[in-house]
Amino acid sequence: MTRSGETPRQQVRKAKQTGRRRFSAEDKIRIVMEGIRGEDSVSELCRRERLHNTVYYRWLKDFMAAGKRRLRGDVQREAGREEVLSLRDENACRDASALGSQERPDRCVKVLIAKGADTNVWAREGRTPQQVAAASGNRALAAVLSRYGERKQSSMGSWRV
After folding, report:
1. Are 159 and 128 in contact (CB under 8 A)?
2. Whole-model pTM above 0.70?
3. 146: pLDDT strictly greater than 70
4. Which fold would CATH assign to domain 81-150?
5. What H or E segment, with its residue span, contains residue 53?
6. What are the sequence ranges of the domains in the chain?
7. Residue 60 contacts residue 35 (beta carbons within 8 Å)
8. Cα dihedral angle (70, 73, 75, 77), rounded to 10 degrees?
9. Residues 79 and 87 sit within 8 Å (Cβ to Cβ)
């Protein structure tokens, strides 16, 4: 133990952690691009950036590998929050049988309608989906179907919106 209460091993570990610099992705790309441009030698670039040559060449290798993967189309891109939520809803609502198991079937209905589902189909009993939802007490689902413009049949048999 030393006066600071740390063992020599702890002091060495602490010195390594504080001595190691972290580079952001933007900095790594900037440094690699400067090296690719070739305006200065790699040795000069690394000296200026206070970087070891092997670290630069590792970044260059990673950079080139990522570019190859991207050109081949092997890379998964980052999706935004809205896109992730939309894909989750779509996957959860692959078919109409999933409606009964959903916590919020109105979201599922919106996805199905956006994909081209017809809200005006008639069930065997001669009722529309909105009528079935209302009869079963599912007000949220009935409101969604009504909002998406379910057509009503008049007594003459013609359709009106």
Report:
1. no
2. no
3. yes
4. 1.25.40
5. helix 53-72
6. 8-72, 81-150
7. yes
8. 100
9. yes
